[in-house]
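Let's sit down with a protein and look at its sequence and fold side by side. Once you have written the record down, we can walk along the chain together.
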Amino acid sequence: MRILLLTQWFDPEPTFKGLLFARKLQQLGHEVEVITGFPNYPGGKLYPGFRQTWRKREEIDGVVVTRVPLYPSHDGSAVKRLLNYFSFALTSCLYGVFGAKKADVIYVYHPPMTVGLSGALIGMFRNTPFVYDIQDLWPDTLRATGMIGNERALGIVSSVCNWIYRRASHIVVLSPGFQKLLIERGVSSSKMSVIYNWCDETSMQIPEQTALDLSFMVGRFNIVFAGNMGKAQALNTVIEAAKIIESQNAEVQFVFVGGGIEVDNLKAMSVSAALKNVRFLPRMPMNEVGAVLSKADALLVHLKDDPLFEITIPSKTQAYLAVGKPILMAVSGDAADLVRRAEAGIAVKPENAASLADGVLQMTRLSVELREEMGKKAIEFYQKELSLDVGVERFIEVFNQVAIKKNTLN
């Protein structure tokens, strides 16, 4: 099968469905071409070694990758962000219609929504079915994050999304909650599938040696949070929980790994409260993150208490399960249900310092054997339900389904 992957973000940028996905499809005998932009995410500046041209074609691990120009930006300016989104939609659509080989099926990665516009138009002009992989619900996310507050503008975004949904041959969502909400908005359940995300399994391998000095984790009960520290993560609650715990169990230590716009605020909160049970490590390569995770006694997922997050599954959930450590899930809804199904940790209330503190203390009271059993169940659940092999197999089933349906109609 010839598959066209349309995604604004692709390796070397961080992305859920990048080279790992394309390479696996290729290994299974499918011909894959990727249309993407010149790498600039998340900093908004072109990566070193790249210069924009009308078209740059390269081959990465046997996968043909075609890069088209865009306006590089990812700062707080809504205008610049929109220019970034719409410029890629325009150039990818032009190349997809006039330059790319005709595919049997088009895979479209959302966000942003504008890539869905491009995919729908390519599909119309090339008479090719497209599968829409929704990783982020618009306009809900735009409203929740404050990127767009104007209700009229949000209404326009909603109308465009509904048009794309109607044009899509099939829609893939990352959680049952996404599926339920889209059904309520008029999308037929017969054209939707839930396919859970996977993680980069190779980067989860724990290195035999590391240059990191992790001696500060020895002799402590370490709760590790690894990833972006932004507004959505609401990690001020974790600092408040650390205050509560410090007087009750001096062995507990919270270790934050990564970057984000809230790092400085979180550090200031920690210093102001004179906390000795909070540590910050900078953003680091994934293999080094693996070394930190291996020293953890439990891994923390935390998001704002928002209805939108009740129907999403943070990407670190899959990575944490694959690592095989107990999870403290401070996200309501689908993510908490996943951890309960896996029997891989404890679910607590989001943005509730007392609930989080209770969950941490409960985790410390479990025997080492019970925590190890949680870790084993985490790995087993990941391999059975969420792994790359399982996910790609399900995508191929969807691709075959829409291709056969298209051929039948013709």
